[in-house]
Amino acid sequence: MKPTLLRCLDPGLRRWALRLVPLVLAAAVLPAVEPPKVVLISMDGATPRLVEQDLAEGSLPMTSGIGLLKAKVLTALQNLTVTPSLTAVGYIAIATARTRPAPMSSPIGSTW
Predict the structure, then answer these.
(1) Cα distance between residue 6 and residue 10, in whole Å
(2) CA pair distance 63, 108, nearest whole angstrom
């Protein structure tokens, strides 16, 4: 019997290789699945209450813009605000998924 590559390997490494081969073959054969696309719209100062009020009063039309998105697309059920409620802090919270940032210092020495 001719020695094959797998038979030349250490038994532990051989078990690892035998587990990896099906995954590599599956990745080569299966079509790539594109991840879902997400669009995040952040409106500085527009609380859900204000948006709902403007939609109800007709200040924001339900047939375009935010009204159309709210009617046809998934929206947040709950919105959380970080403290302090400042734009930069809010965007950092969105980017890092943290509602309480770790203590940080700015170049001028202020902390938040």
Answers:
(1) 8
(2) 47
Tokens of 16: 């690892």
Phi-psi region of 58 (alpha: psi -120 to 50; beta: other; left: phi over 0): left
pTM of the model: 0.48
Please give the Cα distance from 62 to 111 (Å, whole number): 42
Give me the residue label for tokens 């969105």.
94
Is residue 112 a contact partner of residue 84, using CB atoms and an 8 Å limit? yes
Q: Is 97 within 8 Å of 79 (Cβ atoms)?
A: no
Q: What is the per-residue pLDDT across 32-51, written as a single tens digit (0 to 9) for each?
A: 778 878 778 878 777 788 88
Q: Which residues contact 61 (CB under 8 A, 6 or more apart)?
A: 67, 68
Q: Strand, coil or helix: what is 47?
A: coil
The tokens for 5 are 């590559």
Phi and psi angles of residue 69, each rounded to the nearest 5 degrees, phi first = -60, -45
